[in-house]
Amino acid sequence: MKINILQLHSSSGLYGAETVILSLSKALKQTKYNPIIGCLMPDNGDKPQLGKEAEAFGLDVIYFQMKIKFNPFVVREIGKVINQRNIQIMHAHGYKSNILGVIASKIYNVPIITTNHLFPPMPLNNKKLQFFSKIDVSFAMKRLDKIVVVSEEIKDKLIAKGLKESKIVVVENGIDIGEYNSTIEFDKLAFKKSLNIDSDSFIVGTLTRLTPQKGHVFLLEAAKKVLANGVPVTFLIVGDGFLRNQLEEYAKKLNISANIKFLGFRKDTGNLLKIMDIFVLPSIDEGLPMAMLEAMASKTPVVVTQVGDIPKVINDKKNGILVEPRNTNMLADKIIYLLNNKSTRLELADAAFDTVNNYYSKEIMCRKYLDIYENLLRS
């Protein structure tokens, strides 16, 4: 008989945390555990992307509708699901799921863990977000049975906030390698044409939420220098967020709009990664970014900032290129260098694939979570 686990999350997008939940849940389906995706969502709103994707993969999804953004009365609905579906473990993701989940876990006597994908939450100037983050740390996390973090840096930050080290465990993100390393024939030229990109143009791209944490401003500034070098390049910015209009205006101010494409949210990220000559992640803060791992699995060479646990994955000039955060000139120089050196791009891409295949697959991540679940049930 399967052991039911409720994966609880509140999100409207489909980015790193959501990809982790999907990858883990697909792997869990092959074990004695049955993942049930619990989506916290606005009352009468559209289904969140996480729920839609989970349904497409054949996963069980339950939607918890809330009339206000943070509704404590949803705890009762979570409790009903715990009883009706015989939930034996709750797995929360994010401050809202932590707070509501820990209350439900104590009332209905179910163990609960969380995965902390980023700390502190961004943006730092969002007072409401930081207020709930403080409640999460001071109230919810201290009552959770186990706290999973995706990087050592996040672990250190939580310990500095007074959380017990014995309660925290690091589990690196893992992805579905096959999804991004598909051998299915793919017409790159036709796909580039569909995006109105010249066949002879290089493509440098990034795949992230449009938030300050991700450092898109520095990529745009680097793009101006790269384009001034005379190399035909199209820059793809894939993803959505509240900074989109501001970033588009900045691209106009830099007079590079003709070479920058803001594609918004896309479901065909695998194809987009395949046409990129270089993947760039100019973040100023990270845990362990899923987009970087996806690019590595797609055999796309990566240029990434040395923040979070990225330097533990990327060995500079061996399986990727590391740059200093906020260093626009360094970022531009590395992009120009790779564009002019195809053999180096291929060598980095092959080494990057070996790294992610050997250490960051969804199966490896799943085994680590299975150990945590087993210990919870035994205790």
Structure write-up:
- The chain has 379 residues and is α/β, with parallel strands linked by helices.
- It has helices at 16-28, 49-56, 74-84, 95-108, 127-140, 152-160, 177-180, 188-194, 216-228, 244-253, 269-275, 290-297, 310-313, 328-339, 342-359, 362-378, and strands at 3-10, 33-42, 60-66, 87-93, 112-116, 146-149, 168-170, 202-207, 233-238, 260-264, 278-281, 302-305, 321-323.
- Strands 3-2-1-4-5-6-7 form a 7-stranded parallel sheet, with helices on both faces. A 6-stranded parallel sheet has the order 10-9-8-11-12-13, with helices on both faces.
- Helix 3 packs across helix 4 and helix 9 (216-228) packs across helix 14 (328-339).
- It is globular.
- The model has no long low-confidence stretch (mean pLDDT 93).
Care to count the β-strands?
A: 13
Beta content: 15-25%
Helical element count? Answer: 16
SSE string, helices as H and strands as E: EHEHEHEHEHEHEHHEHEHEHEHEHEHHH
Radius of gyration computed on alpha carbons: 21 Å
**Helix-strand category:** alpha/beta
What portion of residues is helical?
Answer: 40-55%
Q: What order do the strands of the largest sheet run in, or round the barrel if closed?
A: 3-2-1-4-5-6-7
Span between termini: 20 Å
Spans of at least 5 consecutive residues whose pLDDT stays below 50 are none
The coarse overall form would be globular
**Global mean pLDDT:** 93
Main β-sheet description: 7 strands, parallel
Could you outline the blueprint of secondary structure elements for this entry?
Elements: E1 3-10, H1 16-28, E2 33-42, H2 49-56, E3 60-66, H3 74-84, E4 87-93, H4 95-108, E5 112-116, H5 127-140, E6 146-149, H6 152-160, E7 168-170, H7 177-180, H8 188-194, E8 202-207, H9 216-228, E9 233-238, H10 244-253, E10 260-264, H11 269-275, E11 278-281, H12 290-297, E12 302-305, H13 310-313, E13 321-323, H14 328-339, H15 342-359, H16 362-378
Parallel strand pairs: 1-2, 1-4, 2-3, 4-5, 5-6, 6-7, 8-9, 8-11, 9-10, 11-12, 12-13
Helix pairs in contact: 1-16, 3-4, 4-5, 9-14
